[in-house]
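user: At home tonight, take the chain set out below, taking as long as you need, and be ready to discuss the fold:
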Amino acid sequence: MTPDLQYRADLTRRQFFGRSAVGIGGAALASLLGGDGLCAADAVAKAGVPQRFGGLPGVPHAAAKAKRVIYLFQNGAPSHVDLFDYKPMLRKMHGVQIPDEIVGGRRFSTMTGGQTARPCLAEITKFAQHGKSGAWVSDFLPRTAEIADQLCFVKSMHTTAVNHAPAITFFLTGAEQAGRPSMGAWLTYGLGSDTQDLPAFVVMTSVDKETSCGQIFYDFYWGSGFLPTKYQGVKFRGSGDPVLYLSNPDGMSKEVRREMLDGLAKLNQLQLDDYGDPEISTRITQYEMAYRMQTSVPELTDFSDEPQHVLDMYGPDVKRQGSYAYNCLMARRLAERGVRFVQLMHAGWDQHRNLNTQLKIQCTDVDAPSAALVKDLQQRGLLDDTLVIWGGEFGRTPFLQGSIDNTKQWGRDHHPYTFTVWMAGGGIKPGISYGASDDFGFNAVENKVHVHDFQATILHLLGIDHTRLTYKFQGRYFRLTDVHGDVVKPILA
């Protein structure tokens, strides 16, 4: 949709009849489609179809396998050669310079860009094959290994950025530069929401217990870019009230708050009538959302109705607000309440000088909760239409950062040329490993999957043709996948 069409969709009755024949035509169209631009609520209810709030006419473009996404984003980049991509060659050549023909003039971060000694570094974990699929998984991830037959491992992911913020931005917005709409914003814009009581797009962040990683969670990782701001993600905080300013101040009753919001809505509507600015419409809808969340959020965050065996499955940190385990359980509760896109971001994987100590701690933080989320969704009948994604912005180098003699400070640098992510549910073929890297885990060599291919596949699973979900901004039609991307069909169920 272009901004002018969005503007027309937001026009009021007064504007329809006061601003040319276009407005009159829009009024007729609105009467046919209903107040939210899709279909009248009564007609939807009579048809027995779950009501959708917002979204674009004609979207989804095809039958969807998934209704929602839970993206478990691992900030800092997990080491693929230590966790999922078993390479006996690295063990064989441990401490020996990686061949120049493998490196091939590739660029790295400034931390190893000038490092001439690049000895191969064998995995610091132990690998074994698991399940009927025979997937290779590290012993640092025992709970993930248990669900290997539910997962699709994509082992040929590759990207272009070699530093964290541009690489994360690329995965989440389709561009390395900040300013584009995030994936959750695009999906909310196109598909709307299945709930009126919670945001369609929710974000939660967490860090490793030792806070070893100094990465920043930038707001543009879940921003709306040039889309109206009502599509941006709502961040749930890791302490105190999940969302600021939901609670009424002392002395203000719910009735007084309702009366105040009604007055604000009238004032904002007068301004919207005069200017037609979609940001004014955002202000109105967000005030109303906040009012409804005064009831829905306390119920959402009350785990007293969760069986003990479920809490145990997520691990001992599950009740600690702001922990990865807590956020994973929250993600399941959000999914079953109709939230479209849940983005969990967990930092701590940036092991440049502490691979031998921090990798295991980080795996312990995320292993049980990630596996529990998949199991929990499956047990509740939600996995079939919930797409779960686990992965970071790139991988880690198969060669050592640092000195081979200084075991305590072994590390791996950023590595965009091949790495592994896993996916589950939502129309993904379970129990397979797709693509492959070379013998050193350095380059993707078989069935390569680029970031834009990955994004196109996610949209496809939600019934969206990635070439058709566009927005005109500054004279150009933009989309999540820019001008690239092919759906990776072999991983579809």
About this structure: Residues 355-379 form the longest helix (25 residues). The chain has 16 helices and 17 strands.
